[in-house]
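Structure tokens please, single chain.
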Amino acid sequence: MNWITNYVRPRINSIFSRREMPENLWSKCEGCGTMLFHRELKNNLNVCTSCGHHMPIAPRARFAALFDGGAFSEVAVPAPTQDPLQFRDQKKYPDRLKAAQRKTGEKEAMLVATGEIGRTPIVAAAQDFAFMGGSMGMYVGNAIVAAAEEAVKLKRPLVLFSAAGGARMQEGILSLMQMPRTTVAVQMLREAGLPYIVVLTDPTTGGVTASYAMLGDVQIAEPGALICFAGPRVIEQTIREKLPEGFQRAEYLLDHGMLDRVTPRTEMRDELITITRMLLGLPPAVKGDLPAPGTGAEPEPDPVTPESVEAPVDESGKK
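Here you go.
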């Protein structure tokens, strides 16, 4: 035995046998702690295969699994004036927007699209909680108005997936004004006799629940979703009492008449097909005749760069 046998050979073997393992192959379930293979998790729409815990899912991935064949067309949303209040806390507001755009690959916190589910044309809008907590700013207000106008123009139902932490404080009163604006948008659908279906996901909180998120003709929620105006911690500190188990979760709201359904994400597409066709007075869909949904795999969004972000457009149409 010598140093070549004891040191050099094991060292050479370790170098050639080493295999690089990507860090993002596994995800840990926040509900049960199970380590889940990323491909298995994606195929199950970010729902834990062990305990059924619903993890966040990006709007594009949601739409890819919702629409027939994963095919949808985006609806253009007017860009509001950026940083109208010149707001700054620890960072400037434009810097926070750019950081969120780099993180999510999206321009803002809501995506609006048109397509078909079970051969039934709809307009859909979905919030992205990863974009500044899905906060409701002027862009989100514009997106909901654009979605309602598109639904009225095409005479289609509007399906909205909410996920928000409330109003965007960096836009102050302008953010709060989106509550009445979105309420008017919902009224446009009512006057046109078009269904408005809301799917509440985790979390849906703050001013969102005081406006468009709770005005649906049908209110559906994903299991375990937190749905409230003020959070449980704030209420407990205010009233100084322990709240009931599961307070303000989807199942609790269903038991107390605030929701119509609590439906798992993997069954949501079939549920929405049934409800939209029923509200439109169409015959039930024939299961064997329905086109296949998308794979649920999230398409790669175009990278958001300073050049790709549209210049703000004011009310007069000038950039």
